[in-house]
Amino acid sequence: MNWQRARQPAQKAERMTAILDAAASLFDEKELAEITMRDVAVQAGVGKASLYHYVKTKEEVFLSLYGYELESWLNELEKRLHRLRRPTPERVAAVLVNELLLRPRLCRLKVVLALVLERNLSDEAITEFKESLLEPTHRFVSLIHHSLPELSITAAKDFLFQYHALVAGLWPIAHPSDQLAAILEDAKYSEFRVDFGPLLQRTLASLLQQTSPGAENASR
């Protein structure tokens, strides 16, 4: 099936939603390297030629999916943090992790973001993507600063990158290949097993504690 070229903004948005839904379904079942543009087209029920009217590369597809997942996560995070009574580093860290654990797709996208997705793009595409990240970046920093006012804006920005790096680094360690997972079942290698959620939460709480003067007293 070939789509008729969308002319109106609403039609274009509908087409992109179908493309992102297809990409999400594929990504939930496969590794990024195993997915092709043809796969996305077939999953979306559209001809490959029609797909290229909306996205030029696989990387653009999954960067768009990342943006969608990020916004969805931020929307829920904002609600949870605003409902949080007497925020402390430990409580803020718990909210951050609990909301993230509901979105394994976002975690996996963070793993491939800098290593793969941002490395095969035109100048125009990467500029457009970075432009799209400005608002969610400022929004996240504002949320953290609002929740923990003793945390400076600069410290909140640093925390954003620390948070992203921790998720991108810990997720693949905590979710090894089937081959490695089988080996780690041996008690001898138990020290190499990583429980993603608890470790991430402890680390984030520690980072927020270190950068929040007086937070220790506030949490008592």
Describe this structure in words.
The chain has helices at residues 9-29, 37-44, 48-51, 58-82, 89-101, 104-113, 123-147, 153-174, 178-184, 196-210, 215-218. The chain has 2 domains: 10-55, Homeodomain-like (Arc Repressor Mutant, subunit A, Orthogonal Bundle); 58-211, Tetracycline Repressor, domain 2 (Orthogonal Bundle). It is globular. It is built from 11 helices and no strands. The chain has 220 residues and is an all-alpha fold. Residues 36-55 bind DNA.
Distance between the termini: 62 Å
CATH homologous superfamily designation of the largest domain: Tetracycline Repressor, domain 2
Helix/strand class: mainly alpha
**Gross morphology:** globular
Count of distinct strands:
0
Number of domains: 2
CATH topology of the largest domain: Tetracycline Repressor, domain 2
Report strand %: under 5%
Radius of gyration: 20 Å
Percent in helix: over 70%
Sketch the major β-sheet: none
Mean pLDDT across the residues is: 92
